[in-house]
Amino acid sequence: MNPFPEWLAEVAADAITVHADAPFAEARSNQWSFGLDAGQRAAVTAADVEGFIREVAVARGRWLAAREMGPMQFYCWHDAQIGQLRFSLVSAGGVRSVFGAPIEPVSVLHGVVHEFLGAAVPGDPLRVWVLTVP
């Protein structure tokens, strides 16, 4: 069973918090996390996961554009400690400031997706896919 369509609807309907002067509050308020159970993991492909993440980024960009807000940075990473895919939004330029450890911003989503699916070893520093929206 592919959970992504249901999850996408939930995320797309959620409001975005914009507080450029409070990046930690902004990041926490806009964060979502998802994990797959064994059945879901067997039913989805890397392309499904990547498509979901990209669709979420587009939906978040549409939400901001409709309200004439932004730009913001959408960012996504694999939290290896709990096996979750996480993403959030912060005002442009703030991604590095919300992590307590060094990160490696990446422009290719493939590595983050494969880490999440267990097909790649998590990077050090943490790989974070970053995209400016809208």
Topology (elements, then pairings):
Elements: H1 4-13, H2 23-30, E1 32-34, H3 38-43, H4 46-66, E2 72-79, E3 84-91, E4 103-106, H5 110-116, E5 126-133
Parallel strand pairs: 4-5
Antiparallel strand pairs: 1-3, 2-3, 2-5
Write up what this structure looks like.
The structure is a single chain. This protein is of the alpha+beta class and 134 residues long. Helices cover 39% and strands 23% of the residues. It is built from five helices and five strands; from the N terminus they run H-H-E-H-H-E-E-E-H-E. It has helices at 4-13, 23-30, 38-43, 46-66, 110-116; strands spanning 32-34, 72-79, 84-91, 103-106, 126-133. The protein has a five-stranded mixed β-sheet. Strand 4, helix 5 and strand 5 (126-133) form a beta-alpha-beta unit. Helix 1 (4-13) runs parallel beside helix 4 (46-66).
Short overview:
The protein is 39% helix and 23% strand. It is α+β, with helices and mostly antiparallel strands.
